[in-house]
């Protein structure tokens, strides 16, 4: 795991804070939720909460839940005051949940469990509530608008992509609607109530995308057209609706010009095609190139207004299913690869006390990669001459941070996955055997002659091993932590009095490992 705390700049903090206060619509969403909370929650859901929490009165339950919503509204109000003077406040001392550092977020979680116990009990209940109906947690998550933030920065482009997704007859959305009418001939619906339900289903899906006032105006017009379907007789309902959505898509194409400029980390300073703060903008500004969880995958972003944009996943260190109120908190968004986020971590219950948070710690010296020669059986099988292990630092082995590092390594299966990279270690061993002191001295002189400058020991080392070995730059390359640790184990460029780095026995042992 790589430490990326230096990648959250003051500008990123300020920009995220201003987004929460001025652009996100969170306060508006939370006030609407507060007023409609009881209507939004099903009777079945409320009855289950009454049984589990031993509460008989609906009003008592709703009152307790709205108090927590009021707290979130107040957090935005406090953040507004902070944004006016953000540079005069020590970052570590800011306790506002939207920009608080991990240690402060952990304190806020503990505070909420004591101060808003009933709301926290409901959120804990929601994790295992198996139903398609809305829960308190889902409503909090939707109101904070992470889905809006995770879209591309240009709302119209995202909206067009949304329309393109649902207008196609091959889309999952179309198939789901068609399945509801499969018992009828073709696409025809002969029952007015069924027609009404289908239109409601379509409109509900479209309304979910009303993320800004501009988009809401487009959606309102689109929904109005869909609601008119069937007024002149019930016909091929699904095809008519798809045609309306197609027209809306075509109008977006004609009405909103886009450029084909492609932004990446190397040219992002030359122009700015991000009209609003978004996940794309965040990962661009952070500039983290390799996944901080595994350091095996590149997560470099590319942004295009037309198509083909990619970015790192943003993992919620404090899982959004367990902590929905932290879903848009800056220090809860970890840029990482899809393998780590979607295949390994999933909704694992990471906590500040049990796992390392990349915005505070990396493995540094808590865990080190080491190659470990295998002991052979009597059969003499010499396949896989060594294995790669993660070895705890002796001074940190029993310390709390060391245990957190171990838990993180186990979650992301690092020891198992890194054994696929034994060939990388073999190459380092070969280089250790080849680059003796005399060879390195000659190489340094040749490099200095070519580049007309003095080559430092660090620069020479990275040239020889062909990777980053500086702790502050591990995010720039994949497998850099592995390289750094193995280089240390092999004692590259260790100062010795003799011209050779290795004794005869050491030399023969390394030779054996790469046969």
Estimate percent helicity.
40-55%
What general outline do the C-alpha atoms trace?
A: globular
Percentage of β-strand residues: 5-15%
Output the radius of gyration: 28 Å
* Tally of helical segments: 22
What is the count of β-strands?
6
Largest pleated sheet = 2 strands, antiparallel
> Residue ranges: pLDDT <50 for 5 or more in a row?
183-187, 376-380, 496-500
What separation lies between the terminal Cα atoms? Answer: 31 Å
Mean pLDDT: 80
**H-E order:** HHHHHHHHHHHHHEHEEEHEEHHHHHHH
Strand order, main sheet: write it out. 1-2
* Estimated structural class: mainly alpha
Question: What features would you highlight for this structure?
Answer:
515 residues, single chain, mainly alpha, 22 helices, two-stranded antiparallel sheet, 5% strand
In short:
By secondary structure, the protein is mainly α.
Task: Itemize the secondary structure elements and their pairings.
Elements: H1 10-23, H2 26-40, H3 43-53, H4 58-83, H5 102-115, H6 117-126, H7 136-144, H8 146-149, H9 155-167, H10 172-180, H11 192-207, H12 213-227, H13 237-255, E1 262-264, H14 279-286, E2 302-304, E3 313-316, E4 333-336, H15 338-345, E5 367-373, E6 386-392, H16 400-411, H17 414-418, H18 422-434, H19 437-451, H20 457-465, H21 480-490, H22 504-513
Antiparallel strand pairs: 1-2, 3-4, 5-6
């Amino acid at each position: 795991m790589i430490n990326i705390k230096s990648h959250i700049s003051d500008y990123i903090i300020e920009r995220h804070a201003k987004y929460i206060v001025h652009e996100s619509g969170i306060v508006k969403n939370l006030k609407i939720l507060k007023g409609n909370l009881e209507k939004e929650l099903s009777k079945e859901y409320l009855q289950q909460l009454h049984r589990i929490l031993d509460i008989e009165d609906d009003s008592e339950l709703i009152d307790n839940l709205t108090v927590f919503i009021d707290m979130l509204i107040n957090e935005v109000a406090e953040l507004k005051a902070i944004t006016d003077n953000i540079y005069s406040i020590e970052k570590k001392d800011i306790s506002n949940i939207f920009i608080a550092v991990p240690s402060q977020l952990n304190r806020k979680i503990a505070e909420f469990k004591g101060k808003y116990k009933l709301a926290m009990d409901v959120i804990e209940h929601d994790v295992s509530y198996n139903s398609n109906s809305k829960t308190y947690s889902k409503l909090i998550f939707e109101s904070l608008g992470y889905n809006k933030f995770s879209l591309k920065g240009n709302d119209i482009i995202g909206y067009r992509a949304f329309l393109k997704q649902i207008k196609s007859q091959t889309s999952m959305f179309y198939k789901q609607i068609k399945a509801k009418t499969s018992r009828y001939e073709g696409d025809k619906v002969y029952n007015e109530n069924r027609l009404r339900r289908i239109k409601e289903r379509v409109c509900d899906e479209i309304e979910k995308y009303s993320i800004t006032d501009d988009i809401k105006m487009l959606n309102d017009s689109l929904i109005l057209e869909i609601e008119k379907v069937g007024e002149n007789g019930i016909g091929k309902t699904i095809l008519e609706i798809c045609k309306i959505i197609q027209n809306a898509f075509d109008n977006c194409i004609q009405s909103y010009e886009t450029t084909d400029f492609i932004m990446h980390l190397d040219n992002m300073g030359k122009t700015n095609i991000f009209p609003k703060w978004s996940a794309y903008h965040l990962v661009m500004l952070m500039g983290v190139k390799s996944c901080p969880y595994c350091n095996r995958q590149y997560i470099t972003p590319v942004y295009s207004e037309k198509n083909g944009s990619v970015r790192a996943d943003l993992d919620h260190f404090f899982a959004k299913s367990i902590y929905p109120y932290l879903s848009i908190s800056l220090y809860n968004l970890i840029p990482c690869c899809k393998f780590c986020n979607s295949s390994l971590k999933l909704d694992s219950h990471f906590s500040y006390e049990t796992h390392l948070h990349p915005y505070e710690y990396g493995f540094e010296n808590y865990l080190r990669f080491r190659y470990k020669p295998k002991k052979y059986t009597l059969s003499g099988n010499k396949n896989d001459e060594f294995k790669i292990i993660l070895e705890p630092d002796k001074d940190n082995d029993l310390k709390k941070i060391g245990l957190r590092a171990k838990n993180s390594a186990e979650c992301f299966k690092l020891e198992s996955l890194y054994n696929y990279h034994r060939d990388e270690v073999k190459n380092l061993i070969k280089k250790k055997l080849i680059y003796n002191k005399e060879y390195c001295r000659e190489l340094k002189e040749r490099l200095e002659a070519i580049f007309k400058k003095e080559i430092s020991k660090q620069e020479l080392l990275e040239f020889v091993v062909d990777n980053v070995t500086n702790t502050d730059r591990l995010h720039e390359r994949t497998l850099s932590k592995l390289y750094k640790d193995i280089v240390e184990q092999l004692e590259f460029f260790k100062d010795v009095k003799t011209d050779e780095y290795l004794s005869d026995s050491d030399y023969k042992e390394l030779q054996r490992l790469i046969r």
